[in-house]
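Before the break, one more example. Copy the sequence into your notebook; we will annotate it together after we see the structure.
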Amino acid sequence: MKLATFIGGVHPNDGKSFTKDSPVQTYLPKGELVFPVSQHIGAPAMPVVKKGDQVLMGQMIAQAGGFVSANIVSSVSGTVKGVEPRLTVSGAKVMSVIIENDGNYTPVEGLGQYRDYTKMTNEEILDAVKAAGIVGLGGAGFPTHVKLMPKNPDAIDYIIVNGAECEPYLTSDYRMMLEEPEKIVSGLKVMLQMFPKAKGVIAIEENKPQGISNIQKLVQNESRIEVCPMKTKYPQGGERNLIYAVTGRKINSTKLPADAGCIVDNVDTVIAIHMAVCESTPLMRRIFTVTGAGISQPANYNVKIGTCYEELVEAAGGLKDGVKKVISGGPMMGMSLSTLQVPVMKTSSALTCLMADDVERYQETACIRCGRCVDACPARLVPQKLMDASEHFDKERFVALHGMECYECGSCTYICPARRPLTQGFKMMRQAVMADRRKKG
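Here is what the structure looks like once it is written out:
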């Protein structure tokens, strides 16, 4: 059978053996929880609680600050200690609601109540998704209710569930395919009810055979749903790559998936849709992987949003002596941390702990014009020329070379024999160009 894939990409060590066979454990937080009001693309949410307020698990504590925004819901019951700036994984301080967990997890009325989605209107489903504060849980954080409101709903003919999980070391989505596949299928069926002309495709890389088998058994009698096995290659799970692999359609940075007739959501996002619509449960948890050679007991956790990273490291047995780098996310697109005093957010997926030999880099040398970066680039760019523009801070040339089409996957940096920090240079230039554009309005 021919496997779906895209042009370019790389094959890094996937590192998934640390946790792929570890069932998800529920972790209940010990200390205070921190809820930044910016956990999504778009306008920050607006706090609706103040210091001293008592809150319940499932209660909205910050309301969407615009159309492209998302509610924030408390994952515990307790007392609001304050509304103040707190450090996040980005290194920036973000206004946050601080809640002292009372350990009772007292729910709001109706939390967990079953609802039959087949008897709900599209508007009722959208309201449930919006109220739940669901955003893209694959890392982008785009508000899900906005995705479900394309300009031309009749043009949507594919709803793609992203089960690639191509980022090395991460196994949370895979564990959900093993442990809660019914919720994945149910969430997709909710979406298909909203788009009667669409076909549902659950795309899973071939290195997850049990996940493929589990889902195939569940959808064998579903005429509108199929499983699409995909070639194992990074970054197979990138939205543009996934759309091309499944449909053969191409989009660039100026287009949305809806422009290609597609809606794409990560596995856990689809589960969150099921939970919001069918179980009256807002987004309050993440399935979170703590992994790598630098952690004593690698594991997958069901963790409350707002939990401190440091608590999860302690739960996993602590860092080993000699650990060199701790990354929020995976090694290709994650962010290196200088402190563990940061909260799990909606877009958090993993903590990857690497030893010195995992991250050792040889000294950077001059580009040898080997062309490997060109072969690897899934956006079909020429990283060597883009790096030359970056080193000269030539924004005009960077844009002319289509540098804004880069989505910072890291493939070029990974494959470069000269060990040049290509992705870092492109990230800096893209930020500079976008800042200029914002100034011009």
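The longest strand covers residues 78-87. The chain has a mean pLDDT of 95. Try to locate both features in your own notes.
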